[in-house]
Write a structure and sequence with these properties.
This protein has 104 residues and is mainly beta. The protein has no helices and 10 strands. The chain is 0% helix and 44% strand. The two termini are 15 Å apart.
């Protein structure tokens, strides 16, 4: 089970985008892509089959998962995440500081 999942709200804790918040768009092994964070410019060739124009396109690059922290919706702060097994056998993510469940 992963600590960060697609759709999570995260805050960047290290790097040039430190302090910025966004939603996780993709999770790839140890890296995550966060909406409007770590923007890079890509020079792309036009692709008429995909109806894609050429030029300089700005898009999100990946960030290492250790550089983002899950945001607790109740406190509004980034918190560390742990795991806990429930009585019915499910494994859920919990916030370390408050002990609240991160999974609904």
């Amino acid at each position: 089970m992963k600590r960060i999942r697609k759709g999570d709200q995260v805050v960047v804790i290290a790097g040039k985008n430190k302090g910025q918040r966004g939603e996780v768009l993709r999770v790839m092994a140890e890296k995550v892509v966060v909406q409007n964070i770590n923007l890079v410019k890509r020079h792309t060739k036009p692709n008429p089959q995909a109806n894609q124009p050429g030029g300089i396109v700005e898009r999100e690059a990946s960030i290492h998962a250790s550089n983002v922290m899950l945001v607790n919706s109740t406190s509004g702060r980034g918190e560390r995440v742990g795991f806990k097994s429930l009585d019915d056998g499910r494994k859920v993510r919990v916030f370390r500081r408050s002990g609240e469940q991160a999974d609904a």
